[in-house]
Description:
mainly alpha
Amino acid sequence: MDCERRRQWLDLFVPVIDNWAVCDSCCITYKWMRSKPEYWWEYAWNWILADTEYGIRFGLIVILGHFVDAAHIDKIFTNVRISEGNAKFIWTLPSGSIFGDSQCPN
């Protein structure tokens, strides 16, 4: 399946995610995102910026699962911020994991 088709399916799926277990377990299996990292990096950030509870979490878990590496770490530290909105816990847990994991060498 090509990137555009996967994106279409994800655009339908992400808005109906209603719990962290579904979100996290799905995101971590999307290893195909590593084959087109810049495409999927942008896609993940778009979900974070959409400012929906599980959209934010989706984006952060995708980044945590597939983009904590030397090529992306500076972007992560530049762009991840802690939300002051209603989704604060949803934001804080995965963003804390990103910062913690970034201290571990590959």
